[in-house]
Amino acid sequence: MSIRKTSKTLLKRAGLIPIAVGTLTVGGSILALYPQASSAQSNNTSHLSNNASNYGYTGSYIYGSKTGGGSSNSAAITNLTLSASSIPLGKSLFLENCSSCHGTQAQGSSRAPNLQGLGAATVDFWVSTGRMPLADPTIQAVQKPSRFSRSQTLAIDAYVASLSSGGPLIPNVNLSLASESAGATLFSTNCAACHTITGAGDALASGVYAPSLSVATPTQIAEAIRTGPGNMPRFGPLTLSNQQVADLAKYVGYLQHPNDRGGIALGHVGPVTEGFVGILVGLGSIMLAGFWIGGKNK
Ligand code: HEC
Ligand code: HEC
User: Fold this and answer.
1) Could you tell me the distance, in angstroms and rounded to a whole number, from the CA of residue 239 to the centre of ligand 1?
2) Rg, C-alpha atoms of the chain
3) Residue 147 Cα to ligand 2 middle (Å)
4) Of 14, 123, 180, 259, which sees the most CB atoms within 10 A?
5) Residue 174: which residues within 8 A CB-CB, separation 6 or more?
6) Best mutation site among 126, 143, 148 for ligand 1 pocket (most ligand atoms within 8 Å of CB)
7) Within this chain, do residues 196 and 288 fall inside the same structural domain, yes or no?
8) What is the number of domains present in the chain?
């Protein structure tokens, strides 16, 4: 395929030839990548079904509706099934570490809220991020190393969830089915106002702050989105689909390690610079495609 002569002249006049050639290469490789991308997708899907059965995914109750609206189990988010055999351990950990404030049945007290019906994901978020147990109930609970191992945390989650039904289950995010670029857009519109565009966090109002997102795991990110801890809004499935939650988790992971990815380093401004370069390359491709299509039609 050759660029029409007039287009070439036009481009040359505008001094755009080097950029255009560069763009042609980029555009070409993007086109060439499509078939690969879709076969990678189906590999991922079969990988996911393995994962899903490992976690005992049933596809039933999630936030009051079915997963992600998909009919297959190629979902970017599945749910962890808690094991009933861990409930006795969870109960003793809860009685030792939580019941003085939340009550023995997690029913709440004058010191702390009722936890019944909040769901395993809420308990998992507060315990795994080290916010609970709380030392000083008068200040905003902070992110700190958790006091419990992962299996102890899941046991506490299982105990509280066994006391009543309802609330979100613990999300397991399959990052290989998530899109970082879709996540970048979603992050700038839904999260950056509070957590800043780099995820560094910021003060909100009188002593309340949106924390840095530098240590949150994909599960904790999905839990925060679905449960809305403290002063953070809760984003339900009608606002953000499971796929979008997974995209966000992937993008926050990128913000945590912006330089670990090979490729061209675009400076530390990260998403902003990349978006800008993206626009330049994108516009270049569109222009070129326009010239090419224009040429073919004549
Ligand atoms: C010293 C008292 C205290 C202890 C001990 C404590 N909590 Fe809390 N907990 C609180 C208070 C106060 C809040 C409300 C904090 C807030 O909203 O920032 C809270 C909030 C929570 C929430 C969020 C509730 C909601 O409405 O979103 C969960 C879940 C939770 N605690 C679980 C636990 C678990 C599990 C333990 C034991 C590992 C524990 N807490 C130990 C005082 C305590
Ligand atoms: C209105 C402000 C606000 C918005 C919008 C917001 N958050 Fe938050 N976020 C908070 C606050 C406040 C907390 C701390 C809650 C607490 O500890 O009581 C928080 C906590 C978190 C945490 C826990 C971090 C950790 O390691 O402890 C994650 C993850 C998170 N937010 C992700 C997000 C994502 C992703 C979005 C966009 C979908 C978002 N937030 C939108 C205010 C916000």
Assistant:
1) 27
2) 24
3) 21
4) 123
5) 44, 48, 51, 75, 76, 77, 78, 246
6) 126
7) yes
8) 2
What residue numbers bound the domain in which 28 lies? 5-60+176-218+242-297
Nearest to 79 by CA among 119, 126, 131, 129: 119
Are 211 and 122 contained in the same domain?
A: no
CATH number at residue 88: 1.10.760.10
- Taking 90 as the threshold, does the pLDDT of residue 5 lie above it? no
Same-domain status, 263 and 183:
yes
- Comparison of pLDDT for 32 and 145, the residue scoring more: 145
The Cα–Cα gap between 122 and 157 comes to 9
| Phi–psi pair at 234, nearest 5 degrees | -90, 130
Mean pLDDT of 197-210: 88
- Average pLDDT of span 170-187: 97
User: Does the Cβ of 143 fall within 6 Å of ligand 2?
Assistant: yes
CA distance 243 to 151: 27
